[in-house]
Amino acid sequence: MRPALTPHAQRFVPGAPDPGAMATATSWTRRFGADNPRVLRYMTFYPWVHPDIVPERQSILAKIYAFYRFYDDFNDSLRSDLGTSRTIAHQMIRILDGEKPSSDAAVLWMFHSLWREHEELCPPEFLARTSSHWRHYFATQSAYHAMSKPEYPWNLADYLSLRIDNGGLHVAVSQGELANTRYVPAHIYRMSSLVTMRRLTYYCVILTNDLYSALRDREVGDHRNPVAQHMRHERVGQEEAFAHFQGLLFDYSDRLHHLPAAVEREMDLLELTPRERSVARAAARNCLNHSDGYEAWASRNEPQLGTPEGDPGIALRPLREAS
Fold first, then answer.
1. Structural domain boundaries enclosing 25
2. In this structure, is residue 8 part of a structural domain?
3. For the residues 185-192, what does the mean pLDDT come to?
4. By three-state DSSP, how is residue 99 classified?
5. Where are the residues of the annotated region Disordered (predicted)?
6. Is the pLDDT confidence value at 309 over 90?
7. Separation CA 165–CA 199 (nearest Å)
């Protein structure tokens, strides 16, 4: 059993990774002891979700997704404790506030390096927005960690709300602006049609991720995915639960691909200039690229990722021991 690709993902054509950018990013991960097979495979993600990436942004996007994988594998592990998860998250937020890490944990210095590069490359408005998204991402990590407890209250609506409020997907989709350097001003970013496109993109990414995660999670007894919870609450088998969420993914994907027409109508109503319309269309493409590209990438790579190996505490090793 494995997820089927939506028609849109079947037609998706990724960009090409630059070998030099990948080498630079790989060397960077090695400084923090993060150059494990899962991280290195996840670095290949960026040309799939950002096929229009400009050459000079390839290395930072590869680093962003490397950090995601390294940090998430630490935080998501059932062997990590909630207190440590919260402590690390608080220190990540202080990095966003301009402080240096108070600990020498490698994962903290990895993000410190990544955020300094953001500050050097990003215009102020984008930096402020992505900083807010990163802040929400870190602030909700302990809540996701707590979901591993069997007594944690769970339903699909609350789960999707938590995953969206988490901020991680907001960061990821908005990275399309960093990738193609088509930065979206606030009055366009908040267009109702684009807000809806982003929400549907988040749903598609969440469901794609969780359909693959459900297959891995079952091996380690992790129920933090909607398939496991649907089985638990609706008293159905895995195949029926899997098919239910596969159907939701196809529905959300179709709805997403009908929304560019709504973007066009809203641009007319707002009387946007030709330049503003071009930016709004780029923002819409960022959503489509992320949904379809992630699904297509996952089909090729998720089955090979496997479950994280080794001690999740590797992310907490002192920096001097990591490299």
1. 19-322
2. no
3. 97
4. coil
5. 300-323
6. no
7. 11
